[in-house]
Amino acid sequence: MSIWGMGAWDDDTVNRFLDDGKNGYMTIGYNHTEAPALYAMFDRIRQGDIIYLKTFYGIERRLTIKAVGIVTQGAYFDEHNVDSNPPGSDLSEQREIASVAWKCTTPCVYPMSEAEMKNNVYNNTLYEEFNHTIGEKIIDLLG
């Protein structure tokens, strides 16, 4: 099991991901051509992994965890899920999605220590979480 952090800057994106009509999902806001390395990482996400949606405010050293869930199906193409494409994008270029059962959707602010800022991956769109303190916080939020 891995824990993944995924950027979700605006509330519209978070709300689309939490749509219970499909029991939730997640996707990357770029297409394969724009961000092939992100999709290589996205393809590593497996059923049973934990994902959290977040924003990061570097100046304030504040990580806001917006939602935490468990991946129920790893990355796949869903030709029927046009909602996985961000507004204004080319709907002919379908993005991969992963299905997620969102367990916690109450935002939580995590203040970053000076030491945690030394390996700052929190500005990234997608990353695997290796910080044990944050990992424990994410697991606690699952209930």
Which terms summarize this structure?
143 residues; alpha+beta; ph1033 like fold; 7-stranded mixed beta sheet
- The unreliable regions are 82-87
Largest sheet: 7 strands, mixed
Radius of gyration over C-alpha positions, nearest whole angstrom: 15 Å
Task: Give me the count of strands.
Answer: 7
Characterization of this structure:
This protein has 143 residues and is of the alpha+beta class. The protein has one domain: ph1033 like fold (Roll). Helices cover 17% and strands 34% of the residues. It contains 3 helices and 7 strands. Strands 1, 2, 3, 4, 5, 6 and 7 form a 7-stranded mixed β-sheet that branches. It starts with a strand and ends with a helix. About 4% of the residues have low confidence.
Can you summarize this structure?
The protein starts with a strand and ends with a helix. It has three helices and seven strands; from the N terminus they run βαβαβββββα. It has 143 residues and is an alpha+beta fold.
